[in-house]
Amino acid sequence: MLKTYCITVTGLVQGVGFRPFVYNLATKFSLKGTVSNNQMGLVVFVTGLQSVIDEFYNALVQNPPPVSRIKSSLIYQIDLRAFSDFKIIPTNKNGRIDLPLTPDFAICEDCKNDLLNPKNKRYQYPFTTCVNCGPRWAITKTFPFERNHTSIDDFKMCDSCQTEYVRPADRRFHSQTNTCNHCGVSLFLTDNKGTEVKVATAQLFKKIVQLLSDGAIIAIKNTSGYLLCCNAQNELAIKKLRIKKNRPNKPFAVLFPSLASLKKEFSINEYQLKSLTSTQCPINIIPFNKYKGAIALNAIAPKLNQIGVLLPYSGILQLLASELDFPIVATSGNSHGSPIISNNELALKSLNKVADFFLQHNLQITHPQDDSVVKFSAKYSQEVLFRRSRGYAPNYFNAQINSDKKILAMGAHLKSSIAFYPNNYLYVSQYLGNLDNFEVYNRFTDTVADFISIFEQPPERILIDKHPRYQSSQFGKELALKINVKCIEIQHHKAHFAAILGEYQLFDKKVLGVIFDGTGYGDDAAIWGGEFFSYSSNHLERINHLDYFNWILGDKMSKEPRLSLLALSTPQMTEILAHKFKPNELKTYRTLLKTNTLKTSSVGRLFDAVASLLNIADFNTYEGEAAILLENALNTYELKSCKSYLNTFEKGFSAHATIAAIFEDIKLGISNAQIIANFLFTLASYSIQFAEDNHYQHIAFSGGVFQNTTLVDMLLELAPKTVNLYFHKDLSPNDENISFGQMLYYLNIKE
What we know:
CATH topology of the largest domain: Nucleotidyltransferase, domain 5
Number of helices: 24
CATH class of the largest domain: Alpha Beta
Low-confidence stretches: none
Mean pLDDT: 96
Structural class: alpha/beta
Largest sheet: 10 strands, mixed
């Protein structure tokens, strides 16, 4: 007997080829019915025999499309319906959006083959995509994910593309981003005055490679924003880019033409390989490991023993790579501190003094995104997400949230992101940047407005950081007043702790939170950053912290590690300080220290002090430079040869004692590498011992300091089997996770 069933599927099921997959599966099982998107995900109606429908349903949920992610599925019988065949029907949106927003996907192998095959109609077409790959969030205007809701809708499919679109056997069957050379996006090359450089389409990428080879800097408009590129083997070109971009020391990422070319120059482990070739295709930070290639390493990554590498993840980059026989610098297309640019006119205006040429196209990018960045620790291959952006944003899966309120969390200030809970899903934006920059601030406020527009409803609660001067907090207060909703302040490091509790859903356990960070406004108005929290039964308490020391000169302290050393110095360090400060400076700053009342527990500033004491860095030219150089001065370590700089555990967690002990080792002639290993061991061993002494079986770590993968490895090596350690896996440990943490704190913690 024939029966009709309705099947609903929720999760990441739009823009991933799910409808054509269902169509072909239904055809295989000779079922009749329909499949369509709706505001909740996917809805299928099928008529057939019960046993066949059962098989169909099992196949659907057990082997879905490769880039999809099912959250839930439901099948139930309805009144019998007669269908003449099986059809994909247009989206029927009957309410507000309640589904994940599809992220961008790296180009798949099939599409790579198409654009490199002279016999294929998409030969050398840079915007070759299919249901399994290509830009999604970058070109989205609204949802559900349909062509007319994206900027690709500006390009009407030609008859050939339309035929593919309606042909069930085709890989581009119902591919919403389907275009080709005849009907699609156009590329063109200009100089930095905007004058087009005449070059035959077939020779375009050869021309670009020739320019790169000659030392030119080229701004390439990729599918998620501009990249500034130059020859990674040309030291003069790299130095020119540094000067023009006002980026004296911060490392650049390097794009290799292929995995084979990367493997020739670097040793890649299985974890890095999987990451580099994933659908996210992030930058991976890898060690040099006796590098013998021709890359100008010192120019690309000054004073470092590691480099960020990536592979081509778009058709544009793949076509460029097909002509390259050398790696290229590929860094975000912006001036230092500004957000990544995606608009043609703005790029010419902002970057005409940086780039010599511009590779432009006429596809509108609605959500510009930087490349994501990850690193794996050396001993335990623990993955640490340094920047969460293209390929990951704007979804966050696995959050267990149950609230009848629509909540918007404004995040932090330096590494800003927003989190929005408007339905049954949680959305965490891409990395946005430092809100001190006016353009970043505009991108931040635009992102807030965009989220509210997409989900067609304002928040009912707004969460902000407790710091009164954070731009995110001020904007949150203004928005709350404007729409007349409650605005709630949440302390910075408590949000960090809630973020890691939320990632692992630890709210039913007793957990020690170890939060090591740069800065955060504390409940006592001090600058926190070396915190120990206890959590159990929805209550959180600060139970320990790095002993307070002086914080002077506001933001200047985080930019000058020598000031942290001065704040922690002993009288015996006078000679060292005399080499770092002018006499009048030293006199003025010491006077400030005598009258100063602002204190800090910042482990980030302790790292700065150690870096300055070891003459590694006295000034930061980019955020966290001293801490990065400190870690890089240590190639490896042996745990058995490490010692703690805290003489007795009972005396507490003292920055002063640590610096004094390090100074003694310097006088004894102990190497910098061993001192750094001892310093990291001090932090790791104290954390583990504190947990054991206070009977914690679960320790959760958050804060920017835990981007130090050597510290992460030490903690993993030191922890007894009876103690479980938790490090961020889906979010960065830095302030990008604050918006998520604010959300989880509000929903789970009772003050």
